[in-house]
Amino acid sequence: MSPTVVNPAGLHDPVPFGYSHTAAVPAGAQLVLVSGQYGSGPDGAVVSTEFAAQVAQAFDNLGVALAAHGLDLGHIVQLRTYVVDLDFDKLGVIGQAVQAGCGDTPPTQTVIGVAGLATPEIRFEVEAMAVRP
User: Fold this and answer.
1) Domain 27-78+106-111+124-133: which topology?
2) Mean pLDDT of the chain
3) Where are the beta strands (DSSP E) in the chain?
4) pLDDT digits (tens, 9 = 90+) for 50-71
């Protein structure tokens, strides 16, 4: 049994922005938690100073982490994204990455603007909760 995503009629349609309002996880499903992934290569170094490149690499890294559990981005039910110097253009980049990776029914998501992350060159980080049916 898969999670149930619901976007209630009384709330705005969040799907064009790359998230959903609610997700229910069925009893007996296994949760897989993925710590914050950022735009790093296998050596841990940030691959680019460009925000969009960091987002793309962070989602690639998230996919690698999920694959270690036999899952992919489509199994995600919740994202938390952390953005240095948050602005509307960055929200669009994040929304596109979520829709590209998660499909037409995006997971729930909270975007958090922060002053900084682990090192000065990191501009974006994403953590996830996924469900193994």
Assistant:
1) 60s Ribosomal Protein L30; Chain: A; (3.30.1330)
2) 95
3) 4-6, 22-24, 30-38, 76-84, 108-114, 124-132
4) 999 999 999 999 999 999 999 9
